[in-house]
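chain below, 254 aa
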Amino acid sequence: MYLDVYLNDAKLLRNVIEALTAIVDEAKFHASDFGWEVLAMDPSRSAMVDFAMPRDAFDEFKNEGDMSFGINLRELMDILKLAGGDDSLRMKIEPDSGRLSIELQGSSSRREFKMSLLDLGGEGGRRLKIPFDFKMEISTHLYSDMVRTAEAGGEQVVIVADSDKITITSSTPSREIKFEIPKDSPDVMEFKFEGGSNEVKASYSLKYLRDFQKATKLSDVVSFEFSTDKPMKLTFPIPGGGHIAYAVAPRLEY
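prediction:
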């Protein structure tokens, strides 16, 4: 296998890898004429991540046909954290090397690292393809504010969307937290129901919504889609036409 990719801004991939670690510590990357893709589920199989980065999002992209390779994301993140503000990034996989070569180039230094590739097997998961009854797009600033507020309650959130607003509640035995987002908020870009529904309600683990904030470094907006007592999908568009999308299973107790 052969791969050679280059990014002028190393921070872009650093933020991508950090967003992937919200779900998994290891991931299988698929490289093709499209670019890079990852589909992976967390160990509990309660959440998944769908990452796509087209070749045009890279400053240089060379590969030989379709290929897959496994990476320890935590180890890669340790390397990418060393990237300075002006560092570029080059990543290579030479034929039959079994290793990923990483080069960070700054104005005053050049650093090179090598990592062993992993044989992870399996397909990693399938994209979530179900109809949703409600979709909303908001700023990532508002999303983070929503999560921070809910954290003052319990570890479970109940989300209700009606014709005027979306309401997020969390509670403990001693208190209840409520956070409302009206559909005409300046931080709401889209607010719509599908299929004739005018109210949806579901409950989710706050842990996942908190971890998904790692993707807010990549995007100014996030869309989330859900139906009553069904999985929720959150999509963060990233530069160059790609995305980081998460799906999380509902909690059926309220």
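The radius of gyration is 20 Å. Residues 3-116 form a domain with the Proliferating Cell Nuclear Antigen fold (CATH 3.70.10.10).
thats it, cya
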